[in-house]
Amino acid sequence: MTTSAALTVAIDGPGSSGKSSVGAAVAAELGYRFCDTGLLYRAITWLALARGIPETDAAGLIGLIEEIELKPDAQQRLVRVAVGGRDVTDEVRGPDVDARVSVFARVPEVRSALLVEQRRIAAGAGIVMAGRDIGTVVLPDADVKIYLDASVEERARRRTGERGLRGDADPDGAGAAKILAQLRRRDDLDRGRAVAPLRPADDAVVITTDGNTLGQTVALVVAAIRSAGARPGAVASAAAPPAGSRRAGR
Ligand code: DC
To answer: What domains are defined for the chain?
Structure first.
């Protein structure tokens, strides 16, 4: 079932907070398009590492953008990325990029260039866009802003599971400990950068997902969007947050 109005939805949050899986599932349920903007930063980082371009070479980094293309799946969700026509989604999600992407994502010139690209993708509404600064910078007029949060320990467990490491069976394992340390470092870099730091927009609905199943979080986000869409002329900031969520800053 789709909502009556096609809205623009921003979903932000720290690494492994579930933005991509939740956003893609919400978009499928509502018949919206979806865009995972982290793939753009990841693809630039992957290419820069492959070509030996340092984060200090802003012009070199911007030059990489024209080689990068987000690819839709069968449901028009931009969840894959290609470089020079080759799908590199699995590579850009690897540990080398994890370790370096926040450093490249701090470069102001890279952020400005990608801002234009992200706004072009979002034009026309009926879209869920996931990232770090979507509600604050990329789409400050989004109809609905969601900030997905979770403790760093919970996020590390999820990431460890994704990587096929023995998360629960081996909580002190070297692989799991490294993932936790790396998430903490990325959080610090993403929250502390000068341009477009990670933070909830003042009018975002904050949903903490510790202990939630994917389905529970998807239901909360869909409820927030439907309640915004059900009010003619109303925007998300006027809608009551669904149970299990709260407004940013409260
Ligand atoms: O969501 P992700 O883990 O795939 O994002 C990878 C990195 O990209 C993240 O550490 C910060 C950066 N990023 C960003 O700065 N702004 C966005 N809108 C999306 C991602």
So the answer is: 8-247 (3.40.50.300)
pTM value > 0.85:
yes
Query: Which distant-in-sequence residues (6+ apart) come within 8 Å of 203 by Cβ?
Result: 135, 145, 236, 237, 247, 248
Q: Are strands 68-72 and 8-12 parallel, antiparallel or unpaired?
A: unpaired
| Ligand 1 close to Cβ of residue 102 (< 6 A) | yes
Q: Report the nearest-CA residue for atom 15 of ligand 1.
A: 105
Q: Using CA of residue 56, residue 193, residue 92, residue 66, what is the dihedral sign?
A: negative
Find the helix or strand (DSSP H, E) in which 131 lies. Answer: strand 127-131
Q: Answer yes or no: is the C-beta of 114 below 6 A from any ligand 1 atom.
A: no
Give residue-wise pLDDT tens across range 8-54.
Answer: 999 999 999 999 999 999 999 999 999 999 999 999 999 999 999 99
**Cβ atoms of residues 65 and 117 within 8 Å:** yes
- Residue 101 Cβ contacting ligand 1 at under 6 Å: yes
Q: What is the pLDDT of residues 57-72, one digit of tens each?
A: 999 999 999 999 999 9
